Amino acid sequence: MPEGFNFEFIDEKHTDFIISCRNDSKIIDLSLSKTELTIEKQQLFLEQYQNMDRIDLILTDILSLNPVGIFTIKNISKQPELGKIIGNNDYKGKGLAKAASKSIIDFGFRILNLKKIYAVTRSDNTINIALNGKLGFQIQEVITKKKQEWLIMSLTANTFYEQ
Predict the structure, then answer these.
(1) In this structure, what are the phi and psi dihedrals at residue 119, rounded to the nearest 5 degrees?
(2) What is the greatest pairwise CA distance in the chain?
(3) CA of 158: how far to CAs of 1, 102, 109, 115, 136, in Å?
(4) 69: which DSSP letter?
(5) pTM (2 decimals)?
(6) Helix, strand and coil in the chain, % to nearest 5
(7) Most buried in the list 40, 54, 89, 115, measured by CB within 10 Å?
(8) Distance in angstroms (rounded) separating the CA atoms of residues 71 and 99
């Protein structure tokens, strides 16, 4: 965990931050879904959350209490996939995505007992591809969805802890 930050479990108090992040034009452009998130959709998501196969955490600055980013492991029981967004521009480029990702990956391997974690990213998202590489992810497959190339990257516990 990056010093001075902690994770909070997602809840309704994070709704405005999550909507702001997910509806950012750069995030939408790099996402498979091009649909904007609404308050109603987020409320429905939270209502159904207990039945979902995922963990969503909000990275928060301990001093300012500002939400910084969203970190997720979804499809935990099938093909666990890491998701990460630093949505607060004041915190971008400071290494927080890497440090927070390491924490959630460690949680996935040690606590959830996962054997492999995946990351799916558009092939032109060079920043995310580079970050995934620094975390130890390797390209496993290239697929085409909605006329765009996507990289399926994977990381095993052995690779992660050998770094």
Answers:
(1) -140, 130
(2) 44
(3) 20, 14, 10, 9, 10
(4) E
(5) 0.92
(6) 40, 30, 30
(7) 54
(8) 11
Which pairs count as long-range contacts for 95-99, CB under 8 Å and 24+ apart, including other chains? 95/2, 96/2, 96/5, 96/59, 96/68, 96/69, 97/69, 97/131, 98/131, 98/134, 98/135, 99/1, 99/2
Please, what sign has the CA dihedral across residues 17, 5, 137, 118? negative
Distance, in Å, from the CA atom of 132 to the CA atom of 138, rounded to the nearest integer, reads 8
CB 87 within 8 A of CB 69: yes
Name the residue type at position 34.
Answer: K
pLDDT at 41: 94
108's CB contacts (< 8 A; 6+ apart) are 73, 80, 82, 114, 117
Contacts of 22 (CB under 8 A, 6+ apart): 28, 36, 37, 85
